[in-house]
Here is the input.
Amino acid sequence: MDWDEPFPLNAVPPRVRKTILSEFKARCPSIREVAQTPDSYWLATPNIGPTILEQIRRVTDAALEQTASPSRPRLTDAELLDCLERLQDELRWLQDRMEAKLFKTARRRPNRQEASQHAGHDA
Here is the structure.
């Protein structure tokens, strides 16, 4: 189920369908619109009590779960370990490069204290 699909009105009793359509000016709202409507609002609406609200939330929660877990193929443990090792190798390589750059920069520029000490010895 996609968040932008129409809310499945057949998932609720006819009197609740009528109430939902009335709240959205006779048009079928999307699952997202129904999900974003606060519980307090729904509970203040005629024909919607805690049990009906629970039915509505089951539909919106199911849509959320489907969008939260992408339908990508799952990796095996071996594939995950290979990926982890590649990432760790890349991280070590990046750390080595950064340390080399920092070392090179530090050797090129003496800090101010060393520079002032050298200036004092030259006088």
Notes: Residues 77-122 form one domain. The radius of gyration is 31 Å. The chain is about 65% helix and 0% strand. Residues 18 and 26 are 8 Å apart (CA to CA).
